[in-house]
Amino acid sequence: MFGTLSDRLSGILSGLTRRGSLTEEDVNAALREVRRALLEADVALEVVRSFTDKVRERAVGAEVLKSITPGQQVIKIVNDVLIETLGGEGESINFDAVPPVPVLMVGLQGSGKTTSTAKIAKRLTERHKKKVLMASLDTRRPAAMEQLAILGQQVGVQTLPIVAGQSAVQIARRAVEAARLGGYDVVMLDTAGRVTLDDTLMAEVAEVKAATNPHEVLLVADALTGQDAVNTARAFDARVGLTGIVLTRMDGDSRGGAALSMRAVTGKPIKLVGIGEKVDELDEFHPSRVANRILGMGDIVSLVEKAAQTIDATQAQATAQRMAKGQFDLSDMRAQLQQMEKMGGIGGVMGMLPGMKQAQSQLANAGVGDTMFKRMIAAIDSMTPAERKNPDLLKNSRKKRIAAGSGTSAEQINKLLKMHRGMADAMKMMSKQKGGMLGKLGSMFGLGGGLPAGMPDPSKMDPAQLAELQKQLGAGGGLPSMPPGGFPGLPKGVTPPAGMMPKLPGLGGNGLPGLGSNPFGKKK
C-alpha cells in the first residue's frame, strides 16, 4: 500500500545520508520534498504541516547538524515523527469488561464491514480463545443477514438466528440477551451500512449504541477511499463516538494517505487492518513497524510472527533434518514455495527485510513474482511422487507429459530442474559449514541444526528478547552474510546489498528459492 510513498521518502532521505555534514538549508530542502511526497500520497494537509513542523524543529538543532552522522539522525527523527503520527504505541481491541462484551461495527456500505466482523470473530476465537456470537442488524441490504450467517459457518462462529420483521434495536437487544444466556464472551453487532452519511441510519446506529452500551465502537473504513475515509471517521466519531478504526484493503494500491491521516485527525487508534479478502487476512496495526516499512527499514518482527503462525512445526522439523543431511527433493522445493505464498509472497516477504527495497523492484521488473511460483508449483504437482523424489527419472517423454499437465513447456521444466539442482547443491554446502546458516537458525530456534520448527511467539517476548531476536536476524544492523559464491540464482541485474541476504524461517535457509532462470515469469 505504501509503495509509492516509501520509494519517494527513501530516495529523499538517502540523499541526506550521503553527505558528510548538513546545513539548515539542506534540511529545509529535504523537508520540502517530504511535504510534496506526503501530499501526493493523499495525506491531509493539516497532518502534513504538523509532520514537517515537528521534523524541522528537531532536525535543525545543533546536536543533529554537528553530529557525526547527521543524515542518519534526520532519518531517525522522521521515523520517530511517523510513529507518532500513526499513533505511537499500537492498541488492540479491549475486552476488559464483564462478558458478554458488545462490539459495535459501523461504517459505510461496501467498506468490508460484514467481512471484517467475521474476521475479527475468527481472530478472537482462535487466538484469544473467546466464545463469540455474531449478529447482523442490517435489515435494509438484501441478504445481509444471510451473508453473515454463511461467513459464520466458514469461520466456525455462531450467529444469531434470523427473525423476520424485527428492527435493528430489537435484534441488538436479543443478541446481547442471547449472548448472556449462552455464556458468550463477546457479541459482535454488525450494523447497516450506508452509501453516504445518512442522518436516518446514523440515528439508528446511535439508538443501537444507547440500547447495548458497547465496550468497543469500531469504524470499518476502506483505505482506498483516501481523504473520504478520514471525513467518514470524523462524522461517525461526532455522532456515535468511536473507540477504534479497522482499515480494510491495506493490500491495495492506495497511496496511504488515509492510514497516515486517520489517527492524527480523529485521535482514534487504528486497531486492525485487513490485508486481503480471505477470512484469516487480518493483522494488528503496529505504528512503529509500519513506519519502518515506509522508510525501507524492514519489519523483521512481523516477518517472524507471520512465520510462527504459518509454519507447520512437524513438517518444518522433518524438513530441517533432511536439509541438515543435504537432502532436498522437488517435494521439499514445493513446500518452500508454498511457505513463501503463505507468508505473503515474495513481495510481502522482501518488503519486511531491511535494505531489500531496490532488490524488490528489480525482481518485479525481471518478472520474478508470485505468478512464477504458482506455475512452478503446478509443474511439480504434475509429477508423480517417484519423480519428485528422484528428478533423474525425468526424461523427455516425462517432461512433455508434465508440461502438458501444468500448462508449461519442456524447456521450462528443464530450467526448473536446473534451479532445483542449484538449490540442492546450496543445501549440501550449507549443511557442511560448521556454524553456517542452517546451524545458526537451528540453534536460534532450538533445533540443534537445520531450519526453525515451532517458531517463538514474539508477542510473548520482553523488549530485551525482541531486540536480541532482531539483532540475530539482522534488523537494524544489516542482514547476515551469505555463504561464499554470491546470492544464489537471482536474475541478471538484481543486486541485493553487498554481503547481505535474507535468511527466512521456513525458506530452506537459502533466502529466495530458485530465482535464477526466471522460467515461469515474463517472457523476454
Walk across the major sheet and give the strand order.
Answer: 3-2-4-1-5-6-7-8
Shape: flat
Give the % helix: 40-55%
Question: Quaternary arrangement of the chains shown?
Answer: single chain
Structural class: alpha/beta
The CATH architecture of the largest domain: 3-Layer(aba) Sandwich
For the biggest sheet, the summary is: 8 strands, mixed
Q: What is the CA-based Rg, rounded?
A: 25 Å
CATH topology of the largest domain: Rossmann fold
Work out the helix count: 23
Protein name: Signal recognition particle protein
Biased composition (Low complexity): 496-505, 515-524
Enzyme class: hydrolase
Binding site for GTP: 107-114, 190-194, 248-251
What would your notes on this structure say?
It is a single chain. The chain has 524 residues and is of the alpha/beta class. Helix content is 53%, strand content 7%. The chain has helices spanning 3-17, 24-40, 45-59, 62-65, 70-86, 113-127, 144-155, 168-182, 199-212, 227-239, 257-266, 287-294, 300-310, 313-324, 330-342, 345-351, 357-365, 370-381, 385-389, 396-406, 410-432, 437-444, 463-473, and strands spanning 101-106, 132-136, 158-159, 186-190, 216-222, 244-248, 270-274, 282-284. It has an eight-stranded mixed beta sheet with strand order 3-2-4-1-5-6-7-8, with helices on both faces. Helix 7 links the parallel strand 2 (132-136) and strand 3 (158-159). Helix 1 (3-17) packs antiparallel against helix 5, helix 6 runs parallel beside helix 7 (144-155) and helix 16 runs antiparallel to helix 17 (357-365). The longest helix has 23 residues, at 410-432. The two termini are 28 Å apart. InterPro entries: AAA+_ATPase, P-loop_NTPase, Signal_recog_part_SRP54_M_sf, Signal_recog_particl_SRP54_hlx, Signal_recog_particle_SRP54_M, SRP, SRP54, SRP54_GTPase_dom. Part of the signal recognition particle protein translocation system, which is composed of SRP and FtsY. SRP is a ribonucleoprotein composed of Ffh and a 4.5S RNA molecule.
